[in-house]
Write a structure and sequence with these properties.
5-stranded mixed β-sheet; single chain; alpha+beta; 22% helix; 111 residues
Length: 111
């Protein structure tokens, strides 16, 4: 199995589970959007909460070469822990939301 297919089979079920959780307190939708080439994963939310518009990216992952870049991570416990539990090694995960000079100190890949 190639890298992109392997990562898809790991990433998609994790994010789909989050996207399927009901949002009980307002008219907010959650959606998982995957690019056609399966290299970008966006977990988005939009709608209205107490008459106020909500729209944003909760998680943005990108497969670059043999690594998973986490560009945005708005989950309470972080998507990196889910990826680790699914068997993705730390050296294959880049915390792209950290500046390049901080990444060597995270214990994850630097890029």
């Amino acid at each position: 199995m190639d890298t992109i297919a392997q990562y898809y089979s790991t990433i998609y079920p994790i994010l789909k589970e989050y996207a399927d959780l009901p949002y009980r307190f307002s008219e907010v939708e959650r959606r998982l959007i995957v690019s056609d080439d399966k290299t970008h994963y966006l977990f988005m939310t939009w709608g209205y909460q107490r008459r106020r518009r909500v729209h944003g990216c909760i998680v943005h992952l990108e497969v670059v070469g043999d690594k998973i870049w986490i560009h945005e991570d708005g989950l309470e416990d972080g998507i990196a822990d889910d990826l680790l539990r699914a068997g993705i090694p730390k050296e294959k995960i880049v915390l792209g939301f950290h500046p390049p000079e901080v990444r060597p100190h995270t214990g994850f890949a630097v890029g």
